Recover the amino acids of this structure.
């Protein structure tokens, strides 16, 4: 039978033969257009926080990608061979990326950090072994007085160090690196007393409290316990900073293990798991409370029920002394305060900020705080009766006035609220009536009396800071150190030094002119120039 001649007209009554159909592009264009509109809407949304914006933007990208693949297979009118090529290419790309790249945590803004799978970390990964105790050397370096930096955020737990006059010109007199070496994973900082510098590290399956010689970085001793906390988002290892009190080291591990050790001999004096002992559970990001030592007591926040939210142990025996509160644990640490003339312990827990009687643990007052996100930044005491509270994820800051006494009920009343400072996990500092902190990663200055924004400066990411007399040291999330002049008139960065090339969340320590910095892979000591040298 002869093939029909396409040049001849179609006979009457016969159906016309369908011609070739073109690719249907408009659904793909619509998907891309709507994705662009959605991303623009996410970033224009009033009140949306930076982390939520990033998460929603990534979600829009994933949904758009899936819809484009479905379009290519079901609605595009591509040829069968082309459809198979597109599907195979997408699956091959996803498989190749998954095989070559892994997620090594996230930034403070929840952006995944990618790493080649064959690249090993620089930190020690073998089992932590108990080192023989080495001599600590000289009693302490010149310029180091008293306890130096014996706990989280320094002598008074407010990230302020006095009596140290840093030079502001780092071009003529740059900081000098004294040592640098690998350390085990974790977000712990250093506690310093004399020649001893103590931190916590994850070493393989063991969680270790490690003591280094301050000026050389050489290990003096290490105490290890079989414990390991690790998640993709939070990273691995301990996150609390040890506390040095007299000749004792108290260290809180990420899975709840609380150890009390002899500073010079590493001998374990007592140990308890604060979660098991107080009927609590492991927080999503690990136990992060740095122990507070006061009145010969070790005060921590397990977040247990039945008056076990905040508890105290005897530092000599580990005996339970008192407990108070019902709220679950946050990721902040207890601090001492005198409010309206009464000594108390403040804690930013899972439900808000509470003031506990320092001698009994009884809850005096409680100020609720929005949930659904981690509570991390330390409350900041302003004067004799005011407390600053701040958190990230779009929540912001408030200052409350606290009042009460033996015959007057305690209460906390809000004075002002501001969305200009959202301290995700950076601890803010105050100076001369002004507050300096990282607002979703950007350094800002607020008037402590009104909450008014004075200036918005550099984006440093989610790092940490120390106020050294009249200069502000900021550890940038990317691994640098910035020196800032904290004045309310204008933002002014004086100098910057790059130390690490990866995420740095750990709090720094400043003992005299010696700045100890670390992240989850390395630690380094710098001797900062002093004024007049």
């Amino acid at each position: 039978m002869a093939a029909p001649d396409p040049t001849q007209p179609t006979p009457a009554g016969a159906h016309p033969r369908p011609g070739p159909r073109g690719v249907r592009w408009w659904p793909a264009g619509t998907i891309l257009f709507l994705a662009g509109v959605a991303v623009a809407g996410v970033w224009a949304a009033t009140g949306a926080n930076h982390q939520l914006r990033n998460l929603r933007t990534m979600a829009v990208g994933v949904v758009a990608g899936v819809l484009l693949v479905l379009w290519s297979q079901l609605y595009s009118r591509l040829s069968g061979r082309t459809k198979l090529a597109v599907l195979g290419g997408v699956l091959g790309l996803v498989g190749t990326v998954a095989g070559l790249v892994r997620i090594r945590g996230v930034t403070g803004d929840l952006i995944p950090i990618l790493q080649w799978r064959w690249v090993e970390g620089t930190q020690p990964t073998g089992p932590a072994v108990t080192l023989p105790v080495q001599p600590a050397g000289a009693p302490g370096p010149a310029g180091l007085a008293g306890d130096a930096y014996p706990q989280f955020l320094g002598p008074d737990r407010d990230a302020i160090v006095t009596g140290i006059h840093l030079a502001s010109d780092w071009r003529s007199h740059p900081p000098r690196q004294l040592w640098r070496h690998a350390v085990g994973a974790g977000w712990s900082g250093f506690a310093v007393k004399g020649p001893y510098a103590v931190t916590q590290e994850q070493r393989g399956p063991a969680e270790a409290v490690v003591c280094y010689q301050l000026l050389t970085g050489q290990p003096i001793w290490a105490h290890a316990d079989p414990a390991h906390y690790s998640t993709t988002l939070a990273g691995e290892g301990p996150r609390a900073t040890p506390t040095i009190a007299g000749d004792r080291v108290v260290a809180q591990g990420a899975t709840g293990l609380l150890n009390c050790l002899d500073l010079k001999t590493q001998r374990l004096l007592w140990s308890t798991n604060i979660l098991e002992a107080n009927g609590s559970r492991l927080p999503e990001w690990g136990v992060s409370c740095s122990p507070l030592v006061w009145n010969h007591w070790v005060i921590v926040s397990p977040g247990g029920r039945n008056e076990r939210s905040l508890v105290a142990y005897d530092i000599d025996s580990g005996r339970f002394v008192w407990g108070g509160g019902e709220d679950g644990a946050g990721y902040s640490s207890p601090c001492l305060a005198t409010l309206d003339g009464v000594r108390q312990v403040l804690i930013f827990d899972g439900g808000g900020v509470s003031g506990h009687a320092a001698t009994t643990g009884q809850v005096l007052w409680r100020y609720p705080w929005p949930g659904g996100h981690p509570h991390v930044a330390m409350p900041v005491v302003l004067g004799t009766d005011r407390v600053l509270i701040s958190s990230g994820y779009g929540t912001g800051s408030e200052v409350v006035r606290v009042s009460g006494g033996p015959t007057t009920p305690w209460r906390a009343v809000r004075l002002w609220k501001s969305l200009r400072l959202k301290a995700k996990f950076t601890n803010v500092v105050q100076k001369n009536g002004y507050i300096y902190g990282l607002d979703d990663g950007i350094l800002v200055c607020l008037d402590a009396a009104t909450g008014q924004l004075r200036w918005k400066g550099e984006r440093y990411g989610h790092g940490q800071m120390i106020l050294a007399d009249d200069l502000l040291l900021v550890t940038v999330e990317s691994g640098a150190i910035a020196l800032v002049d904290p004045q309310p008139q204008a933002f002014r960065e004086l100098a910057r030094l790059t130390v690490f090339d990866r995420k740095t969340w750990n709090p720094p320590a400043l003992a005299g002119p010696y700045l100890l910095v670390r992240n989850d892979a390395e630690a380094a000591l710098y001797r900062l120039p002093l004024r007049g040298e």
